[in-house]
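thought: fold this chain, then report.
action: predict
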Amino acid sequence: MRLLSWAYLVAAFTFILLPVVVLVVFSFQDSRLPVPPFEGPTLKWYAEILADRALMEALVNSLIVAFVSALVALVLGFLAASGLARVYLPGTAAMRALLIAPMTVSYLIIALGLLQMFNTLGVRPSLWVTGIGHVVINLPLCFAILYAAIGEHQKNALKAARDLGASEVQVLWFIAAPMLAPALGAAFFLAFTFSWDEFIIAFLLTRFDVTLPVEIWSMLRSGLSPATNAVGSLVFLVSVGIVLVLEFTLFRKKSK
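observation:
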């Protein structure tokens, strides 16, 4: 039974990680096609993408959009979670369902709806419009994480602070935020990662200034190359780095 369990574990990780391993390996391919047999290794494709001005601009755009949209979604989610967790109203359940609803909707549907809305308002596609779209998809995630993290002892502490004369801003800043610091960090980094990797909304809501996933798609239109593998490897490295930071800081602190 133990042997079967280990075999299943190895098969599962192989299924998940093999495409990533192939992507990274062939990013060091010396020929112009990322296909067997492997020729290399070489770093020329990494040097090429780092010298590509359009690609680096798209990278910076992705970082800006991801950071700003994750921060806005975090603040809005924090305020919504704090309010709905402490105040019970007749429509509280409906409000929670409405906030979480975008998590069940396809990104394509959200992107098309936003595109139609902004076209009606006369707002042209841009990075800021893309950021608004990323707030729409990340707000439910931040709200769900923070709402689940607010337990009875947090609620009691917030009530005690208000009874002692603290204003609502002081309660949120000095009491709620420090108590929810691990959840706030987790929500922010997850929202950042989702925005960093998101393609459909960014593709439909940008025009000239594009994000990194859209720029990668443009590169793929001319065919596969080790350069696209190198870009994908760098994106994967950033995502893994964020996960490792979460694991060795926030998640480990929370478990202790």
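thought: worth noting. The mean pLDDT is 83.
final: tokens above.
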